Structure formats: C-alpha cells, structure tokens
Amino acid sequence: MSHLRFLLATMKPLGIQFLIKQDVARKVFLQSQRCVSSGSTEPFLSGSNSNYVEEMYYTWLENPKSVHKSWDLFFRNANAGAPPGQAYQTPLPDLSKSRALLFQSHGLAKTPGQAEKLLEDHLAVQSLIRAYQIRGHHVAQLDPLGILDADLDSFVPSDLITTIDKLGFYGLHESDLDKVFRLPTTTFIGGDETALSLREIIKRLENTYCQHIGLEFMFINDVEQCQWIRHQFETPGVMKFTNEEKRTLLARLVRSMRFEDFLARKWSSEKRFGLEGCEVMIPALKTIIDKSSEMGVEYVIMGMPHRGRLNVLANVIRKELEQIFCQFDPKLEAADEGSGDVKYHLGMYHERINRATNKNITLSLVANPSHLEAVDPVVQGKTKAEQFYRGDTAGKKVMSVLLHGDAAFAGQGVVYETFHLSDLPSYTTNGTIHVVVNNQIGFTTDPRMARSSPYPTDVARVVNAPIFHVNADDPEAVMHVCNVAAEWRNTFNKDVVVDLVCYRRRGHNEMDEPMFTQPLMYKQIHKQVPVLKKYADKLIADGTVTLQEFEEEIAKYDKICEEAYTRSKDKKILHIKHWLDSPWPGFFNLDGEPKSMTCPPTGIPEDMLNHIGKGASSVPLEGFKIHGGLSRILKSRLEMTKNRVVDWALGEYMAFGSLLKEGIHVRLSGQDVERGTFSHRHHVLHDQEVDKRTCVPMNHLWEQQAPYTVCNSSLSEYGVLGFELGFAMASPNALVCWEAQFGDFHNTAQCIIDQFISSGQAKWVRHNGIVLLLPHGMEGMGPEHSSARPERFLQMSNDDSDAYPEFSAADFEVSQLYECNWIVVNCSTPANYFHVLRRQILLPFRKPLIIFTPKSLLRHPEAKSSFDEMVSGTSFRRVIAEDGAAAKTPNEVKRVIFCTGKVYYDLIKERKSQDLEKQVAITRLEQISPFPFDLVKEELEKYPGAELVWCQEEHKNIGYYDYVKPRFRTIVNHTRPIWYVGREPAAAPATGNKNAHLVSLRRFLDTAFNLDAFEGKKF
Ligand SMILES: Cc1ncc(C[n+]2csc(CCOP(=O)(O)OP(=O)(O)O)c2C)c(N)n1
Ligand SMILES: [Mg+2]
Question: Residues lining ligand 1, judged by CB closer than 6 Å?
C-alpha cells in the first residue's frame, strides 16, 4: 500500500494525463494489488477489493465528481501524500432524502468500521450493476425455442446466477436485500430515484439485461456512448408502447406471416427461402425505416440475402404483389436482354410516402448474387455515392441497412472488410444498421460448427458497434431495439447490430428436410406457436384488439394477396428492368435504350491540355512546402507540357482533369493510389513542414468543376472493389476507378468480378462503368506482382470467337461495345490510356472497363505521347497498326507480329537491332476484348502474303493467346495460321529468378524475328 500511496502522492494533477497515456496508472494498481495482499494499511483495500479501487481510480481520474465522495476524498488525500491509514476519511453526510434513507437502512455510519462496511457494500453493489451491464446478455432468454444458447455456452456467469450466489460472490448477504444503496452515475435503473433497495436494483437489472434483450456494449471505448445505451434500456418504463403502436405492430406481423402462408399455399413445391420463424423481421425493418424517416432520412439502401427477400420486397419496399407472384410462372417470357436471375436475387427501387411519418421515402434493395455477404460493400458504396451527390456529408438523409444470416455473418470475411470501411473518411456511410436473421442454423450446420466466436455478431465488436440481441418471439422487445438502433445511428453515426434470435420453421429451402440433421431442434420447432398467434393472443387478452378485429386484419390481407394473384395471371411478359435497384433518370431514353449509338471523338483542345499540364505541375496553395523530389517531378511535368508530350501519369491527369471540367465526378480508390504504388502519380501533396496538411491540385484546376476524390483505401480488395462498384452504380456521370496495388491482387476480389462486374448487366439489366486499373507486366519481379491474369478476364468476355460480328463499318466500335459484357484493354501509350478513360464517359451507355496498366512503362522514355495524339478530333485507337517502313511496302513484309502492351517496346527494339524493319510489321491490339475484328481484318488483308504471329511476354497458358487465336482464325476463315511466340506454358505466372526471366525473354525475341521459325510446321 505504501507503494501505491507513494506513487499516488507523486501523481500531481498535471502528470496524471501523461500517466494515463503511458499506462503507468494501471501498473501502479497492479503493484498495489500485490502490496495489499501482504497487510494493507488502508483497511478496506483487501485483495478482492483492489479491482474496484482500480476501477474507481480510473473513473475518478476522468471526473472526480463521478465517484462517491468518499472515493474522491481518498484519492485526493492519497494524491496529497496522506500517511498510511489516513487517506480514507468518512465523507460528510449528504442530507438529501435518498441519502437519509440510505443511512437509515444501513444504520448511521458513525464509526470508521461502519463507514468502511458501508463503502464496501456500495462497491459491491456497483460491481454487481456493472456485471449485469457487461455480462447480463449471457443470462438473457434469447432463444425462442428455449433449447439453444445464443452465445454457444450454457454456462451462466457465477456472479449473475441465482440471487444467493451473486450476493455471496460480491460479499453481500440476503440481509442486505432490503438495504438501500445509492446508485452510481453509470446506471439509469433508478429513474428519478438516486437510491434503491438492493432487491429492487437486482429486479430492475434483470428486467433490463436478462429478459428478451441481451445487450453487448460495454466494450465500447466511449463513456458517452455507453451512458446513452444504458439510458435507452435501463430507464424504467422505457419499453412501453401505445395501443396504436401495438396494433400497427400486429398488423405488420399479419402481413409478414400471411404473405409467407400465401406463397406456401399457392406454390408449395417452389423454393422461396421463406421467413417463417423470423416473421418479426418485417415489422423490425419497418420500425427502423419509420424511425429514421422521422429523424430526416429520405433514402434507405438495403442489401440482404435470400431469406425473407420476397417478403421484404412485398411488405417493406412494397413492390406490387402481382409482379412478385408472376415470377413464379415458369412460362413467363423475359422481355429484356440478358440471362436474368431468379426472383430472390433481383433488386428494387421505389419512392413512396412513409405512412408513419407522411414524408417521402425512397427504398432500394440492391440486387445480389447467391454469394452471401458479397453485396455488403456494394450497398455501402452506393450509399456513399448517394450521400456524396446530395452533399449529405453526415449521412442524415441517406442510410444503409444490411441484413445477414447468422452463419454468413460469422463466416464470410467480406463482412469484416466492410466493417473496416465504416469509419474511413472516404468510405464511411455514417453508420449502417445491421440486422441478423439469426435462426441458429446455416443450411444444415449447427452454430457450434459454424463459428468459433460466442455470437455470430462478434465481428462487429472490432468497430465498437453496439450489438443488441433480441428474442424474435417478443415483437415489442424487437421494436424497442430497432427504435434504439435507428436513434443510435442518428445520434452517433456509427454502425449498430440488431441480432434477431429466431428459428427457421422449415428446411433451408422449402424442399429440404431439416429432420435429417436437426431432429431435436425441429421437434421443438414443430411445437412452437407462431409469433403472430402468441402476440395476437396477448393483445386480445389485454384488450388492445378484439378477436374479430384480428381476424378482419387477416382476411383483409388475404384478399389483397388473392386479388394480386388473379391479376398476376394476366402478365405474359416479365421485365427485369422493372426490378432495377439504381435507375439513372435521363441517361437512357424512355425505353431504357441508349440515346444514340455513337461516341464523339475523345480528344480535347490544346489549350485545355496546356492548362491541365500546368495545373499538374504546380502547387495551388500559398506557403505549401513540398518535398524536393516532388518539385523535380512537377518541374518535369511542366517541361513535358511545354514540349507537348505526356507520360503515363500526365496522360491520366489530362483525362481526369478534362472530365472534371465537364462536370464528371472522378473517384480513384485503392491501396496507396494517392501517391501511386510506383510513385508516379502524386495526386495528394503533403506539406513537408505542417503535419497532415495536404493539397489535391486536381481540385484546383477549374473555377467550376466536379470534385475529384482520390483515396488510399484499407488493405482490402473484396471490400473496396465491391464498394467502388456500388459507388459507380449510383450515377452514370462519374468515372469511378479502382486500382489494384498489383494486378494479381484482384483475385481476392474475384467474387465481385465474377458475380457483379462480368455478369451484372446480364443478370440485372444494370449498367456499370467501373474502371479496374490492374498493374501488369513481366519484369522479373517473381511469380507475384507480375500477372493481372488477363486470360481470366478474356475467358469471361462474351464476344463469340467463331462469329464475325455483323455490324456496319460506321458503328462497328460502339455496337460491339454495347453488346459486350465488359471491355478489356492494354494500352501501350499514355494518349490511348487518356482516350480510353474519356471514352468510358462519352459512350452513351456504361460498361465495366478492365485496363492492364504498366509498371516500367510509366517511366519508359519511349512510352510518351505527343499532344497531337490527344487534341480535339483524336480518339481511342483500338488497334495501332504498323506505320513504319513495313507498312509502306506491305508486299515485302514476311511476318506480321500482333501484340499488346509493353512487349511492343521490346519487339521494336529487337527489330531495329536485327534490321528487319521492312520485313516485319508490328501491330498492337490496344483493345483486346471485344476483339477488334474489323481493324484486325484490315491489317490481315494488308499483308496477304505475310506469316501471322501472336507475340506475348506471358506464358502460353496465361495472357491473351487462347483468346485471340480463334478470333484471328475466324477472320481468315481458318486459312492461315496464327503462330505463337512467347514463354512456354507454366504453372506460376513468372519466374522469381531475374536471369531466367531475361533468358526466356531473349529466347522468345529470337523466335519472333527468326523468319524460318515456323517453316514446315502444321497448324
Ligand atoms: C459465399 C457462399 N457460400 C456458400 C453458399 C451456399 N449457402 C447458401 S445458404 C447457406 C447457409 C446460410 O446460412 P445463414 O447465413 O445462417 O442464413 P439462413 O439460410 O440460415 O437464413 C449456404 C452455405 C452461399 N450462398 N454463398
Ligand atoms: Mg441461419
């Protein structure tokens, strides 16, 4: 103890903050714990109490008034260096009413011994209160079936078990139950009262923490937020609902339940992933929406899995029922292009009046693939974009709601990646409400086999999101939790989780037999009275509704369903475009078609190039000191501008800067994109003398311009690419680019690429113009960092290898682009990169654009473009044909080498060194897919007698060869071979040995210019 006091005594107020930061205070108490066990001079500091002392001490450090006066005195005295045994003094009695009661019930604490007991008992009660707040959820009755433990653990904390046990644990006795205790400021169970009997304290705590709501929030590192939650749940009478509210809740449950019943009656053998067992989810969502609308939210964007999706469409979004029912008709023909999707994946967008608030509300449910949780970051990106375009920086008008299944929420890593975006300035949506349909099963797998964490929701703890578990068979408890969740989001703009602990009345889908695998659980489920009946019985019993009213409500909704069913029979055609989650008003014509089938030239006036070049070379802020190395880079940009040339970075600058002037928002996101992985971009300047002072010159280019967002992302591909895809969904008038650090890392976002980017339009008739920048190239850097896996993107391209497209020459390019699922390019010049970025916006429709971007070419002296290639009238060149000596005398050409990307520079160097410029033509494919059949054909016809070669630096089974080969053959009608030159097939995309890399390069360059290499070979 003397050690503690010594250290306490030395903690002068000014040093305390420092000590807290250094965690010295904690160590002090750890030491004090050791000291007190060997005979304490402060008698109340027994070993078991020292934790409380520590707790008190921290609380006192934060705010001396927040602890009991006795503690305040003690710590003050200790701090002032009071000798052993004298730091504690009995506080002067408070004469308030409750205090008087308190002393009455304990007997007047006149002597130090009595005072000490009083203090100890208070400490015990305070700890007890805190125990409920921290661990009460372990005791709460969360499982409606009453057979499972929502936290996967049947163990009940010993300090919260029976009254006797817990009293003993805290050194209290039954005789203390009627004693009155002053309540600490960290509880609201007293309401207006500041002291309560221990019996009442326990009763109220059990009511709050151990009934049908289990609260997890005490891990939050913010006292104000903890206090807020305690206030919302502990305040006596806080869960009272008016009769009107109860009737609305019942009516919503009727709709939810009867909708499922109706589907089950009409289509008993169809999969629909019904909500039975969690019908309360519908009123829960409606409550969240009502409350949020009341607080000013105008647009709610939702993402959800299969379970209950049709019900959400019908009863939350309010899609016309006949539109839903007609989807069950297998004979219905789709009117739209594309392959469409099953009914429980489609999205929806609906503007309507919110009946509870009489305000306008827009609801959007984002279409999603089967891949559980993949839609999470997409929803967040779309939400961010909608907030951004409305200037809703605090998320007061637009919000997202994400629904999850228990197994998926715990199992899918993208959930974690999405949570980690939640507080990043360029990615936050200012709080998401997560609702988990925790039916305590994932397909056939028990929770104990599906996760290692106690709850499926534990992932949310990483961002300090409060988690409200609630028994889904108690609709009022669910509504209270949802109201609080909506208010939480509105108050703190942070994520929150509502965990609806429920069950699944049927199998995974309606065709599955759950008794195969969960026999006991399902025996119980078969006995389980549906929540609607339970709640209706309750309301009828307490007179809130009559049986007749209840039955009328049911009959009314059944009639609505029947009538819609009849109408649905008349529907002969299905329009997927009626299920769009993100309409783009005005972008297409009224039939949803592009307004034209042309693309204007993408070049810009020379003075604009000059202006942007100067902007890219200067620092627009006064007194802003940049790094010397950067000054040199900016100077070289100015030089280039004067010389009318651009390198890669400047070409990109020209594209972005010009689009901004045209009112197009540009957003570039990815790991380290601000500087650029290869230190070439430098879009954010950092003051070398003022910490965190930054400047984005791109935002100072024009007086009137769209904003430019460039943001370093978290180290996630799946989450961030999904997010940017969602951002790009919101508006066609934005260039949204995601850059991978190296192209190969895109495969950790493969699900977004396969499920959304490549196939999104075919499934959901939804356009998306996202741009993927994937650094790619064999540079001897090893198997990683080399290949962006072009073969995979090409393999997923939908243009037919065996059919020459039947478009007219004039609109070949645009028509082909319109038909394709995405565009894959590998530009060899900065000018072409500039054009392809601009074409992305100038096209009358949107397609995803995949660009394999260079690494060494960024600084290659020859990879520069003249302004002449970028000025008005110029355009993106899908093919850059040979225009040197070979092109002048095509009949003398022996070989035409087709290639793409960086290898072109190796090839021309080699050709020059071998003096073969007349014999060998080299033509670049800049757009690989859709394959530029028309332009390649022109080239082939130009050199009728030449041998055709495809040359790539990638291994044969990697890269482009498998894609281009059949297309070349189609053009020549299989009359001429297209020989392969490149690296041998390999399992790894590149060697890790620099020398081996150079040897293989040498080898294939030799073959490329060995004009006898293919003599006598068959094709
Ligand atoms: C990424 C992914 N992996 C696997 C599946 C196959 N699958 C479909 S539903 C399901 C179980 C989902 O359980 P849960 O998240 O608890 O939702 P519930 O069906 O219980 O509502 C699985 C594994 C999938 N759809 N997505
Ligand atoms: Mg489940």
Answer: 307, 370-372, 405-408, 437, 439, 441-443, 504, 508
